[in-house]
């Protein structure tokens, strides 16, 4: 008893199980997580170590090197990049692809231990190191608080209020605030007055440090009680600071007598956020692991609407990015595309197979889709771009098995058998070949499921969705389909004259096909030569196909990166980009403009990589009304920046629809000498500048910056008891200021900063007026007594290393077209630059990302290709028949090349996946035809007649399977992400199916040496 007979004899059980599967699938669908794009793990962490006052070279040698030595001991390490700048070391740690979200926490724990062990090797004043392992956290809801009438303190107060309230919303994990300008207590000694008191700096500074310290006064037993003691004397206001008493040389005076005390914002700010030219504070909200970003977003919107009335009048909320809205829109669009594809497939079935057959297969298709959700939900698959696209891709394939079964039953009915017997016989004959063909189709997609790099992880749901749905389509084809066929299909009516039933494959259409096939077999070498010529032409034509990695997003927002000369003050950067802000706000079609000055924003998209802090950097996030006009807006923005900010490098960037990043072309030179590296980089930059299609050209070392170096005369300094430490502290206090303590105000901790007055800090010419304490003279003396002058030098402010070796990177992007085309033109010129011994050139950017993705995919291809071959051999217990089947697979390239060239689509990573999966579709069709051929031969027919008859009998199932797949993918032609993949599959399948219906029988006659006369 086969599966069909079992289900037919237990109709009630089968029907109930089918209904339960459908309802469970419906429930699972509504319970699945929703995302705009699939998640992938950012396998990077940052190790940040401060070293105040140290020059970049000192940071590199004394801090970065020690941290790198410790990190290098990690066995899981893939790559290590470091950035050393004045006073700060940042090491980016990249872990090998084989580690995933479940195993990474253990890796980060080990990283922390290694970094902690290295702390003892750091120089005095350096550290402690901070390990940031949530670098890849995504803040799906990203908004600002802004209002021209409000100070930063008022904005921060309301931001804290919103954070406190919104953390209570379901599925909210954390809320980060940035763009805030913290306040400080500034104490600005008046130089002339301070000199009158002859008070040593330590005496003055220690007094300030002692204030507001939290000290344990202990407890006292009083009777039966044990009571805490807490004396008064805390400073509770700026006025209290002014009344701080001092005594020196038996004189009593107050802080107000020789210093100005005031409360102000920390200057300079570390970063600045602006929204439509107004000062703002940004808040980013992330979702808990496994949470539903849509339901969280909706709950946040509801709560924000309730809290808005509590905000001061005039304070507004501006949305930078709202993933829930984007997800809902993206899911709705994809569901629409899925329904369109479903309607197209069912319409094709109804048109070519008749009402009953088409309706039957349509029911099976819907049941298979809904049943797939039952298994996909516990597998952690969310509804997102890839998974829904995979369903659309699978639609045509999901009906293949049912079409073969229904077509077989219809043939049996035409031959006079009952529906029951016809169903049992068809399933008995086809179940195993269909299972093998289904497994082969699944194996064709499996390589992407085992790829562990970012691109593989990004696309992994493609395999899971197609694998589950295809296997379930086989299950429903051999169980539910026979049951519905018995209930719905009717045998053809007997002719009234009792004439013999017509041969099922003897109408005009089949006669034309058989005649064509016989002619191709008769002139088989001509046929094969023609096919080989077409294949060779397609190989040649493929060389003209554009190459790309992932396509850009259609998000109605674009980024503008602006780099002013290195060393630009952050306030100057703000003032310069305000010109661009104003211009953008007046431009038609532009909505809100968010400015991030001094650093990138929070990671509000998984594919967005925030820029590390740099005062000369700014980024604008520009909303547009029409996403199709983004290229036009970008070009206009770049032209305006070039005209208005001639010293800046400014360029627009589209968001990516997959792993990648800014700087699609990246050339990296490695070597020991910074001068040589800069020379090599300069040559590469010039080559890029000379190319008319290259833009956004820059290096990560940036320009050298000015450095003022007061030259200490040690002999004079020693006579006065002054050392370099005292000189540095005096200069720091005179300009940037020195933090000497903390003022506690509620839950705020405000730094107490001693610095010179505004007038004394305005110009560097005031340097000679700085007073420095001489322990020998017991008074302040002019700094000119211990320095001989001030030297102006230039230094590298940023030093980069890759795996502990100095590296300089040169970036570029294409003005138009693909990065691959630009890379092909730049690569030979840059590689022609002569490299000194010990220096090397590495290519990163899209080239490396694509190479890594293809290598990750390639690791799994041999294993699954072997499984496909072995499955084919097992199905036929033969070598020649599988050889014939596999010879048909390369024919897909004929259609692929033609399709990509006709539609002008690039061959992307998704197109590569489509090409690989296409092999499974073709093999499935070829197996169905070969199985029928074996069945025909087993009846004793002449070989040539059996070949022609089997091809005719499989013509409709193969053509229908191809047609449903091809037409079902039409909606994906209009999706930027899947367009190249859809073109690859549609054109490849279309050409290959036509050729397979002819070429496979022709090759069979050649391999088995069947001559035309035998027919």
TrEMBL record:
SUPFAM superfamilies associated with the record: Multidrug efflux transporter AcrB pore domain, PN1, PN2, PC1 and PC2 subdomains, Multidrug efflux transporter AcrB TolC docking domain, DN and DC subdomains, Multidrug efflux transporter AcrB transmembrane domain
Record bears the keyword Transmembrane: yes
Keywords: Membrane, Transmembrane, Transmembrane helix
Gene Ontology molecular-function annotations: xenobiotic transmembrane transporter activity
TM region(s), chain numbering: 12-32, 334-352, 359-376, 388-410, 431-450, 462-487, 523-545, 857-876, 883-903, 909-930, 951-974, 980-1007
Keyword Membrane: yes
One CC-aspect GO term: plasma membrane
Pfam families named among the record's database cross-references: ACR_tran
Superkingdom of source: Bacteria
PANTHER family the UniProt entry points to: CATION EFFLUX SYSTEM PROTEIN (PTHR32063:SF18), PTHR32063
Name this polypeptide is given: Efflux RND transporter permease subunit
Source organism (scientific name): Oceaniferula marina
């Amino acid at each position: 008893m086969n599966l069909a007979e079992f289900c037919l004899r237990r109709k009630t059980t089968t029907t109930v199980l089918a209904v339960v599967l459908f309802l469970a699938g419906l429930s699972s669908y509504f319970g699945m997580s929703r995302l705009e794009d699939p998640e992938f793990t950012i396998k990077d962490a940052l190790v940040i170590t401060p070293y105040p006052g140290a020059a970049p070279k000192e940071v590199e040698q004394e801090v970065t090197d020690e941290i790198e030595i410790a990190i290098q001991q990690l066995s899981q390490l893939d790559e290590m990049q470091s950035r050393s700048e004045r006073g700060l070391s940042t090491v980016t740690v990249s872990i090998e692809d084989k580690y995933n979200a479940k195993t990474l926490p253990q890796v980060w724990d080990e990283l922390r231990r290694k970094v902690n062990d290295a702390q003892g090797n750091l120089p005095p004043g350096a550290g402690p190191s901070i390990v940031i392992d949530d670098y890849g956290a995504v803040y799906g809801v990203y908004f600002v608080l802004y209002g021209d009438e409000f100070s930063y303190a008022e904005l921060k107060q309301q931001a804290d209020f919103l954070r406190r309230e919104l953390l209570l919303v379901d599925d909210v994990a954390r809320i980060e605030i940035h763009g805030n300008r913290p306040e400080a207590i500034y104490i600005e000694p008046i130089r002339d007055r301070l000199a009158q008191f002859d008070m040593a700096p330590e005496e003055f500074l220690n007094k300030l440090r002692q204030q507001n310290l939290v000290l344990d006064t202990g407890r006292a037993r009083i009777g039966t009680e044990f009571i805490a003691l807490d004396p008064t004397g805390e400073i509770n206001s700026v006025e209290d600071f002014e009344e701080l008493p001092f005594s020196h040389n038996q004189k009593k005076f107050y802080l107000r007598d020789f210093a100005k005390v005031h409360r102000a914002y920390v200057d300079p700010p570390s970063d600045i956020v602006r929204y439509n030219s107004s000062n703002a504070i940004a808040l980013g909200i992330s979702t808990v692991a496994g949470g539903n970003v849509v339901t969280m977003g909706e709950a946040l919107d509801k709560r924000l609407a309730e809290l808005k009335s509590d905000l001061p009048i005039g304070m507004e909320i501006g949305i930078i990015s709202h993933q829930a809205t984007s997800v809902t829109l993206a899911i709705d669009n994809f569901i629409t595309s899925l329904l369109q594809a479903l309607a197209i497939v069912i319409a094709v079935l109804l048109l070519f197979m008749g009402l009953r057959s088409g309706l039957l297969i349509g029911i099976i298709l819907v049941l298979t889709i809904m049943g797939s959700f039952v298994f996909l939900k516990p597998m952690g698959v969310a509804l997102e771009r890839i998974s829904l696209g995979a369903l659309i891709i699978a639609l045509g394939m999901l009906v293949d098995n049912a079409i073969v079964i229904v077509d077989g039953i219809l043939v049996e009915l035409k031959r006079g058998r009952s529906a029951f017997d016809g169903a049992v016989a068809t399933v008995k004959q086809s179940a195993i070949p269909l299972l093998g063909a289904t497994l082969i189709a699944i194996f064709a997609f499996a390589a992407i499921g085992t790829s562990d790099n970012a691109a593989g992880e990004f696309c992994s749901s493609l395999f899971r969705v197609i694998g589950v749905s295809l296997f379930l389509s086989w299950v429903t084809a051999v169980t539910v389909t026979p049951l519905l066929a018995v209930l719905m299909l009717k045998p053809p009516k007997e002719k009234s004259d009792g004439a013999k039933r017509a041969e099922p494959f003897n109408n005009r259409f089949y006669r034309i096909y058989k005649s064509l096939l016989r002619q191709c077999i008769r002139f088989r070498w001509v046929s094969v030569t023609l096919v080989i010529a077409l294949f060779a032409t397609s190989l040649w034509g493929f060389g003209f196909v554009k190459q790309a990695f992932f396509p850009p997003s259609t998000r109605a927002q674009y980024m503008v990166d602006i780099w002013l000369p290195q060393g630009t003050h952050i306030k100057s950067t703000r003032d310069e980009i305000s010109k661009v802000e104003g211009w953008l706000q007046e431009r038609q079609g532009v909505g809100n403009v968010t400015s991030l000055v001094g650093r990138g924003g929070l990671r509000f998209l998984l594919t967005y990589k925030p820029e590390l802090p740099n005062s000369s950097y700014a980024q604008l996030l520009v909303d547009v009304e029409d996403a199709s006009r983004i290229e036009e807006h970008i070009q206009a923005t770049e032209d305006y920046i070039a005209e208005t900010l001639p010293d800046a490098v400014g360029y627009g960037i589209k968001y990516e629809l997959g792993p990648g990043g800014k700087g699609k072309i990246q050339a990296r030179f490695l070597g020991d000498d910074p001068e040589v590296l800069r020379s090599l980089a300069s040559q590469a930059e010039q080559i890029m500048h000379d190319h008319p299609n290259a833009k956004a050209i820059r290096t990560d070392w940036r320009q050298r910056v000015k450095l003022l170096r007061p030259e200490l005369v040690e002999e004079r300094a020693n006579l006065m008891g002054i050392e370099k430490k005292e000189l540095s502290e005096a200069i720091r206090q005179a300009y940037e200021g020195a933090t000497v303590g903390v003022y506690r105000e509620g839950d705020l901790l405000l730094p107490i900063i001693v610095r010179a007055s505004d007038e004394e800090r305005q110009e560097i010419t005031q340097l000679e007026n700085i007073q420095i304490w001489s322990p020998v003279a017991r008074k302040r003396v002019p700094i000119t007594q211990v320095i001989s002058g001030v030297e102006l030098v230039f230094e590298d402010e940023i030093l980069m290393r890759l795996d502990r070796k100095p590296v300089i990177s040169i970036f570029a992007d294409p003005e138009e077209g693909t990065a691959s085309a630009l890379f092909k033109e730049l690569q030979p010129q840059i590689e022609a630059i002569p490299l000194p011994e010990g220096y090397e050139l590495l290519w990163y950017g899209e080239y490396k990302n694509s190479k890594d993705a293809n290598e990750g995919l390639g690791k799994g291809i041999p294993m699954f290709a072997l499984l496909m071959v072995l499955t084919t051999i097992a199905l036929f217990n033969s070598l020649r028949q599988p050889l014939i089947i596999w010879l048909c697979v390369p024919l897909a390239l004929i259609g692929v090349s033609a399709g990509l060239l006709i539609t002008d689509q690039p061959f992307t990573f998704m197109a590569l996946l489509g090409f690989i999966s296409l092999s499974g579709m073709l093999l499935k069709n070829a197996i169905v035809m070969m199985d029928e051929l074996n069945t025909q031969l087993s009846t004793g027919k002449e070989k040539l007649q059996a070949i022609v008859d089997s091809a005719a009998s499989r013509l409709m199932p193969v053509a229908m399977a191809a047609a449903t797949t091809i037409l079902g993918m039409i909606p994906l032609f209009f999706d930027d992400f899947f367009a190249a993949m859809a073109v690859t599959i549609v054109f490849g399948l279309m050409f290959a199916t036509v050729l397979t219906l002819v070429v496979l029988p022709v090759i069979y006659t050649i391999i088995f040496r069947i001559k035309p006369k035998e027919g």
